[in-house]
Amino acid sequence: MLSTLFLLSKSVDPVATIPFSESDLAERTQTQQISQPEVFGVTPRGDLISLRADLARQNTDDPSLLEAQDVTAQIKLTSGQRVDLSADMALHNPAEQTLVLSGEVFATTTTGYQFTAQKLVLSLTDLNAGSLGQVAGAGPGFTVTAGQMTLEVPKGEKEAHILLKNGVKLVYTPVNDKE
Q1: Is the N or C terminus of the chain more exposed, i.e. has fewer CB atoms within 10 Å?
Q2: Cα angle for residues 160, 158, 85 (degrees, 5° grid)
């Protein structure tokens, strides 16, 4: 009876199961790259940073930089809160230990804040992230736009703060509590 199962089962074509098109295979064989890389680190204060991408390779314009596509990052703060980031592209500068997220950059916090920007610089050595240009965001009961946003631990403080500056416009919409 078991031999019948093997005789009647479908055969699998090993070439047909490769999840890449011919153009993807041609592109991947021309350059050195890493598929689905993951990097993890810890800041000196104990915040955890994790980075993931669909693809990473050496930058063609500047070989000292590493570029990645479809990037996600997560920062787990020592307070227990989390910041989730995603971007279309990222450039890693190993000399400066920074990651520049670009394209559509989205940031979401576990405290209910959401921000979008075109570029965001993330330090890989300490807890510091800042937008390069305008940001738009929303939170519980408000929307906001600003010329710049930073996530940092201000001097003399223990917890991380999101700081907005350069032409901040905040629109507060009170929540109607019905009793």
Answers
A1: C
A2: 20
